[in-house]
Amino acid sequence: MHVTRFILPLVALAVLVGFLAAGLGRDPTLVPSPLVGRPSPDFSLPRLDDPTQAFSSTEFRGDVSLLNVWATWCVGCRQEHAYLVELSRTSGLRIFGLNWKDDPVLARRWLADLGNPYVATAVDLDGRVAIDWGVYGAPETFLLDAAGRVLYKHIAPLTPAIWEAEFLPRIQAARSAAP
Predict the structure, then answer these.
(1) Are 154 and 168 spatial neighbours (Cβ–Cβ below 8 Å)?
(2) At a CB cut-off of 8 Å and minimum separation 6, what does 88 contact?
(3) How many domains does the chain have?
(4) Is the bond into 139 cis (omega within 30 degrees of 0)?
(5) What is the CATH number of the domain that holds 41?
(6) Once rounded to an integer, what is the mean pLDDT over residues 127-148?
(7) What are phi and psi of 168, to 5 degrees?
(8) C-alpha–C-alpha distance, residues 87 and 69, integer Å
(9) Angle at 57 between CA 56 and CA 61, to 5 degrees
(10) DSSP structural state of residue 102
(11) Domain ranges, residue 106
(12) Is 7 inside a domain boundary?
């Protein structure tokens, strides 16, 4: 009877350790998105630069573009911001922003101080649009084709290495496939 009392907790511990070991070996930036290959979620939100104007998902159509989810309270967003500014000047891509659960006054100051890589930025104060996009946290960057379909989702700060390995091949393929 004493042996059974110790075996059950040991078996439970072994199962738990197995689950942890399997999960720890995975790259946390590779969270699959059910949106990949599908049209971007429809939305309309106020613009950061002019809240009387709307920013909607229709703005993604026409050419390959990026949607970058960011906030002033996000450490990773600050890490990637200078690179986004550089990309806005050198990549030829339209970069849109989704300011997530943030203070618009602080967000406008951030862009004035650090540079504005975005063609337009939507303000998602309550985070409902981010939920539709499957956002886990900031920063997240979505690559969209000319029809507004999601081609790729990256979680974590964008870096030159990630840009070259993950984004550029998809951008080239999307542009060559466009009519």
Answers:
(1) no
(2) 95, 116, 117, 118
(3) 1
(4) yes
(5) 3.40.30.10
(6) 96
(7) -55, -45
(8) 15
(9) 120
(10) -
(11) 29-177
(12) no
And the tokens for 148? 């507004």
Backbone angles phi, psi at 100, to 5 degrees: -105, 120
pTM of the model: 0.82
- Angle of CA points 49, 97, 110, to nearest 5°: 60
What is the helix (H) or strand (E) element at residue 87, kind and residue range? helix 75-90
- Residue 1 domain flag: no
Q: Is residue 67 part of a domain?
A: yes
Residue 19 lies in a domain: no
Torsion of CA 76, 80, 84, 85, to 10 degrees: 110
Name the residue among 150, 161, 154, 126 with its Cα closest to residue 140. 154
Q: What is the DSSP letter of 91?
A: S
Nearest to 166 by CA among 176, 177, 155, 175: 155
pLDDT tens-digit readout, 142-170: 999 999 999 999 999 999 999 999 999 99
